Amino acid sequence: MLRRLHSLPGLFAALFLVVLATSGAILSLQPALERSAATVPARGEVSVAEVAQKASLAYSGIEQIERLPSGAVLVYFTQDGNSGADLINPVTGDLVTTYAPSPFFSWITDLHRAFLWDDRGRAAAGVGALIMVFMCVSGLFLLASRAGGWGKLFAPIRGSGTVNINPRLHTELARAAALGLLLSAMTGVWMSALRFELLTGVDEREADFPQAVAGTAPAPIGSLHALQQVDLMDLHQLIFPFPDNPSDVYSLRTHQGSGYIDQATGEWLSYADYGRAATVQTLIMELHTGEAYWWLGLILGLGALTVPVLAITGALIWWQRRRAMPRMQGNTSRHEADTIVLVGSETNTTWGFAKSLAEGMQVAGCRVHVAPMNRLADRYPKARRLLILTSTYGDGDAPASANQFIHKLEKMPAAFAPPWAILGFGDRQFGNFCAFADLVSEALLQRMWPQILPTEHVDRQSASSFERWGVALGTALEMPLSLRYTPVPRTTKPLILYAREDYGTLVNAHTCVLRFKSAAPRESLPAFAAGDLVGILPPGNNAPRFYSLASKSKDGVLEICVRRQEHGLCSTYLYNLSLGECVDGFIEKNSRFKPPKGKCPILLIGAGTGIGPLMGFIRDNTAHRMMHLYWGGRLPASDFLYEEELHSCLADKRLSRLHVAFSRGVQPAYVQDKLREDAVLIRTLINANAQILVCGGRQMGNDVATAMDTLLAPLSLDVATLKKSGRYLEDTY
């Protein structure tokens, strides 16, 4: 629900928000430009009396001195019947440049405040600012939910995107700009509310105009005691007395208050302090405009520039989620259905699996009702089974379409107890993998509802895992059930194989390093980095197989490591490729599996073809940060992948140390054995804030995690803790 409340106002007001933000970003330049042209003395260096003395000598018809919030000092004067304004150096009194308001900035200001309209435009701008406040607040709540709590709001974002436009760009920009946008929007709402008298503003207290003055000859302005006591940094405006009028006075406004000064005696005739409330009111205005804080204005301006990108990416993500929602053909009403399928999804991808399940059950003769988990009804008169497919959002939370399910479940009639099965969808990169599915399973077990199958998990939308679950479900229900999930076809590019290296023939573990280039003439490879994924579509199959990339696009080569699996459709296809043959592939970003920026040590752990992305990270380590590689193979003479290049990286310091283990060598060992041998070194690296990246088979990943838990125990740490802090990343398969 919160996601809908966040997205719909943004879609409705996107254009207005873009105009407000873009014009605000442009206006943020004005204080900085004024500041760059101004000479700003230090506090205590120049008094108002000194500036006024120098200015009055330079301008015979001086009328007023004004210090702008940016620090620029202006002199307003009349000479030869013509009025003018100059920007001066307050220290020397010298002319800097003639001053005139910028027509361009005036136009942008009108656009920002009122959309070049009248008060109706101002009202629209105020509503736009209010919508921006709501967008920022709701967005921050969504970010906190995804991160696993407010304390992790700025922790690394893990997990992969599930739509064509990766939401990571939207999320990262929003996280960077949210607080600045919220400050600008809240101050804008406040100013708009004052404008339309929805809030009562605080009037600055005005000093009483003096009834009596000395009336004697004016003293030199530089000698006036009251002006000598006021620092230039506190000046807002000094208005000079009318020439040749001894009864007139100086009018002085500072940031603290205002009053009148006798031109003969130099003493205060009257003074009024603005008060704290008025000072706060002025501060709010200055925070919005950035006039007094040019550096803050630039920061807020940069934040405002994210709004067009956020609007575009947000709209695209919304549209793609809508497209991802399948249309359920023949969806039986809940009153007539014998099979209830409830779906929990954040990005709508789980609905594709639900559609496949519903179609399979319909073929088996069932009447199926499919609905979001939040639409759990209190009665299903003819239901014989309940099937739940749900993802997990963030760090173990319910997805958008299931966040009310547990609450509704607690209110279900005790007599209703259908047999049930749950299939969870998630990403093993998260510490609480499929945690919400497990939570729902526990809630149903507590209600003593009969379970059809133990709860199972699907990692990263694995079609094969889903199909295996369907076979088990059909067996348990004693019905012929065949599930086929076909992902939405992806746009691919032809890749031509131009080089390969073969390994593993001596141990019957046929492995190869394949290097591809773009098959299209004069067309470069799509953008990618080491650790990203390439999806390969084997002939006659729309379900892609993903392989981690060992290269980056700037290398001009797409490089992967492939081990031929028994009965493996894609691995066999790739292994049997000859030079010059082409494949169809596409790039999928995998930013969740990357070494962090900075200088912290890197601990790379892998086995077999899992060395691919790790090799890419080593190649890119031109800054020579500390990087250790623990890698396991079978036989050094047969499948020591990248042996020569690894030794070359050791020589040029891109790799600090290489630790290898071979299960069929002279001294058989596995990579986890090497970790245990180097326990002291591992703990030293962990204490130095080392980042751990593990890549390879799932069993290897489990064995490494078990070994690491033992190694980390003396430090009062474990793998789960490191995962939550983003210091332990896995890419296992």
TrEMBL record:
Bilayer-spanning residue ranges? 123-144, 292-319
Query: Which Gene Ontology MF annotations are present?
Result: flavin adenine dinucleotide binding; FMN binding; sulfite reductase (NADPH) activity
Record-annotated FAD-binding FR-type domain positions: 490-596
Can you cite an annotated GO cellular component? Answer: cytosol
Q: Which CDD domains match?
A: SiR_like2
Which key words tag this protein in UniProt? Flavoprotein, FMN, Membrane, Transmembrane, Transmembrane helix
Matches recorded under PROSITE patterns: FAD_FR (PS51384), FLAVODOXIN_LIKE (PS50902)
Provide an example Pfam family for this protein. Flavodoxin_1
Which InterPro entries does the UniProt record give? FAD-bd_FR_type (IPR017927), Flavodoxin/NO_synth (IPR008254), Flavoprot_Pyr_Nucl_cyt_Rdtase (IPR001709), Flavoprotein-like_sf (IPR029039), FNR_nucleotide-bd (IPR039261), OxRdtase_FAD/NAD-bd (IPR001433), PepSY-ass_TM (IPR005625), Riboflavin_synthase-like_b-brl (IPR017938)
Q: Which domain of life is it from?
A: Bacteria
Domain annotation Flavodoxin-like: ranges: 339-474
Q: Which PANTHER family match?
A: NITRIC OXIDE SYNTHASE-RELATED
Q: What is this protein called?
A: Nitric oxide synthase
To which species is this protein native? Answer: Haliea salexigens
